[in-house]
Amino acid sequence: MTARRMKGAWWVDFHYEGERIRRKSPVDTKRGAEEFERRWRQQLLDGTYGKRKEDRSRSTEKAKQVITLSEFAEEFINTYARSNNKPSEVESKEMILRTHLVPFFGPLALDAIDSRALERYKAEKLAAREKGGKVLPGLKAKTVNNHLTVLRKLLAVAEEWQLLSHVPRIKWLKTPQTEFDFLDFEEAERLQQGADREWRVMITVGLKTGLRLGELLALRWDDVDLVAGRLMVRQAAARGVIGTPKNGKWREVPLSAEAVRVLKAHRHLRGELVFSDQRGKLIAKTSCKWPLWRACKRAGLRRIGWHVLRHSFASHLAMRGVPLKAIQELLGHATIEMTMRYAHLAPAVHRDAVAQLDLPSRAGHLMGTEAGITQSVTDKVL
Question: What DSSP state is assigned to residue 219?
Fold first, then answer.
């Protein structure tokens, strides 16, 4: 500080960008002069020196709100994501920010991320690029949409914390309908027969319940009712940590007679987990692909992942005429749109439904009654 007492009063006297600044302090004490100098220097730095008090207040408030994405990203992860997301989701957000969003948007202030910047980001990520003398294809539209989802959430949190006036509108890239693989009924039976004995139960339960791999690994005996023939999906494993299922919601899944039979025969005393290692500990996801691939090889099938068992469960239900709403609830899908991918597997159901338009009213009534009975039987099987 350069406050000094001269001519019976306290003054500040310093140089800023080659210009000498010398002013009398309005508070005639050393501490008052030092505070006066601090405020004055800050106004020079903010560019608010010489403006009216109300203008300086608005400029200072705006300056406080100007924070770059790079600066806010760390706070977003540590303060928001770690408190509200699962560890696997936090890890995914960190990767997307570190690898993609921060390198592109990092130097920009949050309020400078507008529609034009978003379009430039999409164009750059979709374009082919050269690396190591090779031309690499651009990212898929769905991957870029995943990046934009993280960015939008970050901006929404900034808006909620009053660091941003509004979130820019994001135009999502159109994505092709997701293709999926599934086993037909005969292939599913062959897969079960080709599995190692200690893995056959887990594969069978996956085929008969549609549980995700993480949900199978975290399934506890307390969540299985073999008398009533049902199980509750209350938790799931991800990155070696057991937490809540996807979407954070519990769901009940009825067990088929075969699922009940194999689970009864599988009953063990190793611990609370239905599927565990020999010490009763959680099985790592990375250890699960090899037993499944061995079963595929013995069954003469293509290599598949555990999620194909979930697709097979839903596909078999659709082919048996089970309503899509029931399939949605059994799979735990948040929206019916996710379940609609299985709609094309029930062509016979649609054909029979349209055929009823040509039936006489009496026959149509009987057909409707028969369909109701069939649905009731299907519900009991589930």
Answer: -
Per residue in 41-59, pLDDT (tens digit) is 777 776 655 544 455 455 4
Catalytic residue among 230, 246, 285, 320: 246
Structure token pair of residue 286? 């990375």
212 flagged as catalytic: yes
Q: How far apart are CA 222 and CA 17, in angstroms?
A: 73
Sheet containing 9-16, strands listed edge to edge, beginning at the edge strand earlier in sequence: 3-6, 9-16, 19-24
Return the number of other C-beta atoms located less than 10 Å from residue 227's C-beta.
Answer: 7
In single-letter form, the type of residue at position 176 comes to P
**Options 93, 147, 310, 316, the catalytic residue:** 310
Instruction: Please name each of the domains of the chain with its CATH number.
Output: 3-65 (no CATH), 69-160 (1.10.150), 185-342 (1.10.443.10), 346-381 (no CATH)
Q: Which H/E stretch holds residue 171?
A: none
Burial 162-191 (b: 16+ CB within 10 A, else e): ebbeebbebeeeeeeeeeeebbeeebbebb
Q: Is 289 a catalytic residue?
A: no
What the block records as the tokens of 69 is 């994405």
Question: What's the whole-model pTM score?
Answer: 0.67
Is 220 exposed, middle or buried, given 0-12, 13-18 or 19+ CB atoms closer than 10 A? middle
Whole-number CA gyration radius for the chain: 32
Each residue of 25-58: b (16+ CB within 10 Å) or e? beeeeeeebbbbbeebbebeeeebeeeeeeebee
**303 is an active site residue:** no
pLDDT in tens, 195-232: 999 999 999 999 999 999 999 999 999 999 999 999 99
Asked if 188 contacts 317 with a C-beta cutoff of 8 angstroms, the reply is: no
Is 333 among the residues known to form the active site? yes
